[in-house]
Amino acid sequence: MNSRLGLATLMRLQRQRQKAAESMGRTPTGDGRLTEVAHFGSNPGGLRMLSYLPADLPPGAPLIVALHGCTQTAAGYDAGCGWSDMAARSGFALLLPEQRRANNAHLCFNWFEPGDTARGSGEALSIRQMVEHMVSTHGLDPARVFITGLSAGGAMTSVMLATYPEVFAAGAVVAGLPYGAASGVGEAFSAMARPAALPLPARGDAVRAASPHRGPWPRVAVWQGEADSTVNPDNAHEIVKQWLDLHRLGNRPPDVEKRAAGHSRRGWQGRDGRVLVECHHIAGMAHGVPIHPGAEEGRCGVAGPYLLDVGVSSTHGILDFWGLDSVGAAMDLPGASQDEVMPERPAANPLHAPHEAMDWSRARTGGGPGAAIVQALRAAGLMGR
Predict the structure, then answer these.
(1) What's the CATH fold of domain 23-358?
(2) How many helices (H) and strands (E) does the chain have?
(3) 3-class DSSP state for residue 126?
(4) To 10 degrees, what angle do helices 3-21 and 371-379 make?
(5) Residue 29: band (very low, low, confident or very high) from pLDDT cuts 50, 70, 90
(6) Which of 27-36, 149-158, 319-328 has the highest mean pLDDT?
(7) Active site residues
(8) CA of residue 265 relative to chain centroid, distance
């Protein structure tokens, strides 16, 4: 079985398991508010560019880039997460790159292909050109450009933060992977299933090698479901390592922490007390974006496949981390009214919060909900026996 057939098998198995494990409904399709931009540069990655600008957006407004996951569209991802609704409420421009089936049959951004993940080439350059077009055409603030994405879009967020760190003030990776996790389809599957536990400097070096930039570095938030059987939750720890090293924060416990109702938030502060790296874990949540649907304060979006109603709006939380949530109710965890300054404690494994992630070692031997994925990987010749 070749790697493309292996990918198709894997995606089919993932969709079958997702139907049983997650809140399902019709995939949000959007309401037609996005506008396509046909000409924005050489577009070597062959991506579509869609955008949304609220009425009366003032000059110097921020720009947010949102990258959908596999099998999703830009409009569906926007509607599910509520990004354009929040753009209208909070006053920012929105850019939603979209993958084409000609590039990837499952609409995944090619975060694992060297030709698409290097500075100055492929999909990474296409997204960079979109950002430049938005900023110059609409008079947006080049110092307030932010990026986020889910799954393959989350991994592509890591790519953009690494290859063009001077472009982005901050980012947020949802159920994604660190930059440099894979170079090719086989390595991508392996990283999704069992990421290498690398030292902080090794993770940071991958980013430092991606561009001539030497700082300051973007601030980064990581969001991860602890029952994710598509992207092993240990990938969240590897992303945190990468950015702790770049910010010279070291392998130490978090400075602030909140835990309540199955949602934990940990933050590592810089010298000025501002959180530079933070990590959110949602207990019991499968693969997808945590959302809190509705139009009330602290809510937005529509539930659907990989858009999971867990009573937590990551859209609000991300905007709050970036300093853009002007409508409030972003990260008020029930029962945790204030950040708790964490005391010094032994740090045998300080980056790992307790979680209920699937046991991938058990999956490799035939048990647990990940067995189907592992079988598909083995059948494709992409995982050892």
Answers:
(1) Rossmann fold (3.40.50)
(2) 12, 13
(3) helix
(4) 170
(5) low
(6) 149-158
(7) 151
(8) 16
